[in-house]
Design brief:
Mean pLDDT: 96
CATH class of the largest domain: Alpha Beta
Low-confidence stretches: none
Largest sheet: 6 strands, parallel
Oligomer: single chain
Helix content: 25-40%
Structural class: alpha/beta
CATH topology of the largest domain: Rossmann fold
Order of helices and strands: EHEHEHEHHHEHEHHHEEE
Length: 278
Amino acid sequence: MEVIHTVAELRKYLQGVPNNVFVPTMGNLHDGHLRLVEEAAPRGACTVVSIFVNRLQFGPHEDFDRYPRTLRDDCDKLESIGVDVVFAPDEAELYPQPQQYVVNPGPIEDILEGAVRPGHFRGVATVVLKLFNMVQPKAAVFGKKDYQQCLVLKNMVQQLASPVEIILAETVRADDGLALSSRNQYLSATERAEAPRLYRVLCELKDALHRGTHSYATLEAEAMTELARHGWKPDYITVRRQSDLLPPSEEDRSLVILAAARLGAPRLLDNVELQLNS
């Protein structure tokens, strides 16, 4: 496995293996990340994983400085599953000048996660496009846990005519249902025992929709009340259309329930998709 730190080295190496598949990460890898790599590996001759904590997608009071940097351990995990290249640039390498040219994702940037974290998706889209230009993959794999991010990036490659295929992998969960996330390690033991409730609440809401209940606002309010009753501070639990994350009409069948809530200091995201019968 090659560990590469500069764009020049990366381009030189990849000249000989253009058929590559890419998994962008911020490091501090867990089994969810490794599942993305396993999804990518059969799709190309070379698997590239980037590790870079991207300042542009963090707000001024978020955890950029505290975000765990575990490059050596991450590389050991990636080598054990057959990754070909780890691209681990520092900030000066990826942003040699202040980043004045950015990707504006449009209206989707201002709803849900974008409303809670202004500028977040602009930072995500900008760094991913830069990484695509550096790695030049034929495909890139992202996890559905960050559902709105996936839609932002799918729209980006479509509207900017990028040749990169976006592959979406299912959310990886612990045995008790908690979606795997690097920020789960911030949970105390008591909070970790409580954390699976978020997924259970989403599944209960999904079951209600399958039973034919269509009072979305009532179901959303009940779900948020259930979390709050157990010490959570929910930002939102909402039923949206899968296609654009706008509120659904009675005719919409392909839906997703999205949630973001704090449990103590950590903020957890989750979602479940559903297909209603006609």
